[in-house]
Amino acid sequence: MKKIKTGVLGYGFSAKVFHIPFIKSHDEFTLTAITQRTGDEAQLEHPQATIYRDYESMLDDDEINLIIITTPSHMHYEHAKMALNKGKHVLVEKPYTATYKEALALNALAIEKGKVITVYQNRRYDGDFLTLKDIVNRSDENTYEFDGTWDRFEDINDDTWRAVWPTE
C-alpha cells in the first residue's frame, strides 16, 4: 500500500504530542511536511520533513495527500477550506469549526471535492466514552444529554488564542 504523505499545519503542543508521534509510529503514514512560521525546532526534530513558513506553500506541494490542521481554533474553517480546495484530505484538531454553519459548509465542500474531512477526537477510545457508547447502543431509548467533566490542574488564561472566537 502506498503511504499517506502527511503535512502538519502548526507546530505547537497538539502537533508535537498527538499528531506527529502517531504519524511516525504508523506504517501507513509518512511525515512529509510541517508548517512552522518561525523557529527551527521542527526542522531539528524532523529533518526528513520539508518545513514551510506559510500554509499556502505547503498546500501547493502535490506530494501531500493529507493535511492535519493544528492551528488556533478560530482558523480551522479557513485552513480546512483551503486544503480541500487544493485537493487534500483533511483532519482538523477539535473544535472542528467555530460554528455549525461552517461545519456544514466544510462537509459539503469535502463531498463536492471527493475528499475525506474529519475531526480529531483523541478521547473517543477512553473508558468514559466507550461506556457511553455502550449505553447508547444497548438502550431502547434515545440518549439526549451527556454531562462530563475534565478537570485541569492549572489556571486557564482567557487571553490565549484558544479563547479567541469570531463573533456572528
TrEMBL record:
Protein family (similarity comment): Belongs to the Gfo/Idh/MocA family.
Stored InterPro entries: Gfo/Idh/MocA-like_OxRdtase_N, Gfo/Idh/MocA_oxidoreduct, NAD(P)-bd_dom_sf
Chain coiled-coil ranges: none
Species the sequence originates in: Colwellia maritima
Domain annotation Gfo/Idh/MocA-like oxidoreductase N-terminal: ranges: 4-120
The protein, known as: Gfo/Idh/MocA family oxidoreductase
Pfam families: GFO_IDH_MocA
SUPFAM superfamilies membership: NAD(P)-binding Rossmann-fold domains
Keyword Signal set for record: yes
Keywords: Oxidoreductase, Signal
